[in-house]
Amino acid sequence: MTDPISNETLLESAERLCETYREAATERLRDGDVAVVDAAERWTAFVRHHHGAVFDAADRAADAAVLEDRAADAPTERTVFLDVLAANFAVSRLRRAVESAFDADCRSSPPPDCVDVNADFTTAFDAVHRLVRDDFDDESAARLARLESAEPVILDSLEPTAVGHLYERIVSRRARLSLGEYYTPRGLAELALPADCAGETVLDPACGAGVFLAAAVDRKRMALSDLTPRETLDRITSTVVGVDLNPVAVRCARLAYLLTLTPLLAAVDSPTVELPVYLGDSLGLGGESAVPARTASPTTDLRADVLVGNPPWLTWERLSERARSRWREHHIDRLDLLPRRGAERLLGHANDDLSVPFVWVCIERYLEEGGRAAFVLKRDLRSGPAGRLLRQLRVGDRPLSLRRVEDFGALAPFGDQVRAAAALYEFTADADTEFPVSFRTWRARSDPDAPAPPAFDSLDAMHRTLDTETTGLVPVDVDDPAGSWVRVDAERAALGPCAHEIRHGLKDDAKAVFTVDDRLVSALELDHLYPYLRSKHVVKFGLFGHDRHLVPQRRTNEENESELARDAPRTYDYLANHRETLDGRASTWFDGGPFYNLFGLGPYTWADYKVVWCRLGFKPHFVVVSTVDDPELGEKTVVPGDHCMFVATDDRREAHFLCGLLNSAPYQRCLRELGGEGKASLSKAAVSKLYLPEWRDTPLFRRIADCSERAHEIVPGHVDVSKREYNRTTIPELEVVTGELDRAVERLLAERDDNS
Q: What is the C-alpha to C-alpha distance for residues 711 and 732, in angstroms, rounded to an integer?
């Protein structure tokens, strides 16, 4: 006799069913079952349209064994499809259990006219579900029957957030990241909602697994306790609305919504409920259906007093050309959402993803006059070129008042496995921003007696396990409020005009081709092999080794194919043998030039001296590089790599002066405020805000350069340990030099202030 469902959690039961389901579906897919193949093709078309060919690299490397091995290094379209299919099955069965337990008739209305209907592949999924259920053995069939007949008291205890957790347990982390799926914890959703939203319409235009909807339903249910359960049901389902273009996400959100309503369902006899979670495209781009895209309009038949959510964090480059074309036709030019073009955009001088454009379009289309919007976005939008659209605080003709920023610093609100640096931004439409803007930083408690590790399960849990500090945000330049913002208490002494051009390191998008190992060195001519820097090599005032790289050009787009074939035939033949890989590089960085074209090359690459740093993450380590005496290559110019930025100069003293400034305490403190701890904290935009004057042969300039040169002499004697160990090491003689350097830089900045 099998145990009743009450003796194992619903999630455990659902997850075990998914394992059985996936095995059966895998077998049918391998055998070419028409229904499963059709479902796979429909899902793949959806993914490629909305996310691009995100799994292509893995699919090219995959073989039949991948279907047997869920722990494969990289997810493929087939393995992810099978996971999503299994998750969809579990969610649909849980919804059936809720409807049965509460004798509820839960319906899904068609979306409003302003929401373009999206292709629904779940009909094809349901056809597979019916087939796979027939493959269950007696034990699995009994487990499914127990799940679908769970008691109301058990279902009532199931938290709505469990729906997203179930999906995350079934679909691999790497697959979810490839699809841009960062499911929001309940605490952030509660933080986003205004306390007084009982009488307001709340819309999440990219609702995912429905956590914002569930939080809004709970808040309204508590506020409307004076109404009858039926009246409360009607009020909530007419004022809490979600939209998503992913049919599986919509099913998850509808289930989460339904689970939040169970106290009301239990109090109403045989309730009929219209769940306002719509499958469609909030942006009005036409989706994938045959329905033509409607003309974009700031006024729609769905209006909200409050917009909330966590929009998709997808890059523009990842979209299909069809999707990009629709964005351009309907929103990009009209709202000036990607104002930069060409090389500037490629270098990051525009939005690095579509989250802010998504929010801006939804504000225009759905937000009532004077309405409020609160969205989880990247925390580093307060500085750098990628955040300028947000900092303009205007959607078309509508001004936005930024009311608060909730910054989560180095915390991981999406879980330790998703290190996405996030912040919550709240706006009021149709009003101007008044600086300073409230800026609250959330941090892990430093108290060793803190009751628990950081928790985001609820807003109460956040307040219980985290410390906060509130200050204000202001523009660096009062005449350019859309420029970078810093805290009102930030270090500003190092801000000022930058007299130097900041360059991007070499980019190839084909590491396997251009990286040169010991074996390959002997197979190629040495003329085009160079020492190459990655982020792991750079520390303050020193290098931890280098790689070797093939650099077959002197500058980007150089048409030197005939010369290369003549003067370095082995190198040319090697590149020609990898032509398919090189031609397959998707980025427009490599448009033009020969098939092995590289980006980020020019006369500056070959300058005598370069001040180099890594632009990703926040490690403000600057070093002067020139040449390296490589045992195989001889003495050659060092080439900064893809994640590097640098300033080029032919003057050794100028290079060390700049490096001394950048590694000094006043500049490091300023960079922490400008760059924060986001993905591109040390971007060109951040560093170019610093006072970096041209070299002048004055005693103070010489003193700063001298300190840098002395530091560069000290560091190489301490690089015989790991970089991590080195960063924890105190070098007394280096501390003496950096102390002298800090005093010299502080004096330089003080004299500059006196002169101004």
A: 11
